[in-house]
Design goal:
Layout lengths: L4 H12 L2 E2 H10 L5 H4 L12 H4 L1 H17 L6 E6 L5 H10 L3 H5 L1 E6 L3 H11 L6 E4 L10 E6 L8 E6 L2 E10 L2 E8 L4 H4 L11 E4 L1 H16 L2 E10 L9 E4 L2 E3 L9 E3 L2 E2 H10 L3 E7 H8 L1 H9 L4 H15 L8 E7 L14
Helix pairs in contact: 1-2, 5-6, 10-11, 13-14
Length: about 375
């Protein structure tokens, strides 16, 4: 590919005609030279978005304890893997490592696989891991990780995977495509033969004007996780903003410097995401033999993991400013008006394992 993502997309449309939103996202995010995730590290206060591990250390502590308990539930294997999909700056993996230090053999027998395509972020992760970087391997895709007992973490990973959108007009399903108009890029609706009613849960019987989304990429990775935990002892924890069966409409959004902008503005310089269809992820993994737990709200999960108890313990020895920072972070993670209900948590597991930490109430 030559030129900027916008130039490449314009040329592609001129040659092929309107393109699916999935193609638009793929070029904007993964252009080999100028794609958003290829060329920049955009997480943190100075970037375009902040993830939960950057908000509060308590989030990472809860996930770390979840991973450690999962290793115990897997039978404390002598050789095992912690696999993180989309590890950001490496903050969450470092939190997991701190938790594993509570059980020396868990840390000594572990190997870390970081599934990351961004070269700038890989460098951030390597520096963050420090003396533990020698235990880590970087992969472009989860399928490249060799088989072994594992615990998989995916925090705000699936929302960045490409989607297609389908719109019902006058009783006919159309696909929303990206075209070139007089003012630049624009959305248009093109009649489709794609079986929307069969492939997308809840779409059959949808009223005119309704928009439904599907992410084949997300379903494929969930299926790969399902295969992996069926063939080897394993668990996966998926945390993201999304929905599970209810109507949701158009969730495609672009973010730059923490502000929402048009998807057609700053192509290659803005993050493109969509809400995650947790029901589709769970179904894809279950079809491959995995056991599913949830999804439940992030608020319910973190509360069950003991985040409030940990907050109280840390606050006893914290200064006034530190107490307020800790309290504010937990509020942002768990309040219904913040991330508490918008973000959901899904666990996938090898069959016959006990309920994962945080999900016991579902049993």
């Amino acid at each position: 590919m030559t030129g900027t993502p916008a130039e490449h997309l314009a040329k592609l449309i001129e040659i092929e005609g309107p393109i699916p939103i999935s193609t638009f996202m793929q070029v904007a995010l993964a252009h080999p030279e100028h794609g958003y995730y290829r060329a920049r590290a955009a997480i943190g206060a100075e970037g375009d978005f902040i993830t939960a591990p950057e908000i509060s250390q308590l989030f990472g502590e809860m996930i770390g304890i979840w991973v450690l308990q999962s290793w115990i539930d897997l039978g404390s294997p002598r050789e095992w893997q912690v696999i993180e999909l989309g590890p950001g700056r490496g903050t969450l993996m470092c939190d997991v490592i701190r938790a594993l230090r509570l059980r020396t053999e868990a840390l000594e027998n572990s190997h870390f696989h970081l599934v990351e395509t961004s070269l700038p972020l890989r460098e951030h992760q390597r520096k963050a891991l420090g003396k533990f970087a020698h235990k880590a391997t970087w992969q472009d895709h989860v399928t490249a990780v060799p088989p072994a007992p594992c615990v998989i973490i995916a925090n705000e990973f699936f929302d960045a995977l490409t989607i297609r959108q389908f719109l019902k007009l006058k009783g006919v399903w159309c696909e929303r495509m990206v075209a070139l108009g007089k003012a630049g890029f624009e959305f248009i609706a093109v009649p489709t033969l794609f079986d929307v009613g069969r492939e997308i849960g809840g779409a059959s019987g949808a009223p005119n004007g309704e928009i439904y989304e599907i992410s084949s990429a997300a379903r494929a990775i969930a299926a790969e996780i399902g295969k992996r935990v069926l063939q080897q002892p394993g668990r996966a924890l998926i945390i993201d903003y999304g929905y599970s069966g209810e109507r949701h409409g158009d969730t495609l959004q672009a973010l730059r410097k923490h502000k929402k902008i048009s998807p057609f503005e700053s192509i290659g310089f803005a993050d493109l995401t969509a809400h995650v269809d947790f029901a589709a992820l769970a179904r894809s993994a279950e079809l491959e033999g995995a056991q599913r737990f949830g999804p439940i709200s992030q608020r319910a999960f973190l509360t069950a993991m003991g985040i409030e108890t940990r907050l109280a313990a840390l606050s006893k020895h914290a200064s006034g400013t530190e107490k307020e920072t800790l309290k504010r972070g937990v509020h942002r993670l768990t309040a219904a008006s913040e991330m508490g209900d918008l973000f959901r948590v899904l666990a996938l597991s090898s069959p016959k394992l006990p309920a994962p930490p945080g999900f016991e109430i579902l049993e």
